[in-house]
Amino acid sequence: MRHAATKGVLVSNRSIVLALVLLGSLLGVAGGAAASAGEHAASLSVRYQGAPQKTSAVRAQAGAWCGDGETSTNRPNTELSSANLIHVVYAVPSDGPDRFATFAPAIAADLTALDSWWRTQDPTRTPRFDLAAFPCASTLGRIDLSFVRLPEPASSFMGSDTDRLEHVISGLAALMASTVKTVAYYDGPVPYSARFKCGTTTGISPTMGGTVALSVEWIQSACPQDFGQGRFQAATTAHELLHNLGAQPATHPCPGDQYHPCDSETAVLSPVAYDDSTISSDVLDFGHDDYYAHSGSWFDVQDSAWLVHIPSVALSVAANGSGTVALTAPGGSLDCAPNCSATLESDTAVKLEAKPGHGMRLVRWEGDCSGSATSCSVTMTAARNVTAVFGQGGYPVRVAVAGNGRVTSTPAALSCPSQCQASFYGPVTLRAKAAAGYRFTSWLGACGGHGVCRLNRKNAGLVQAVFSRRR
Question: pTM to 2 decimals?
Answer without folding.
Answer: 0.81
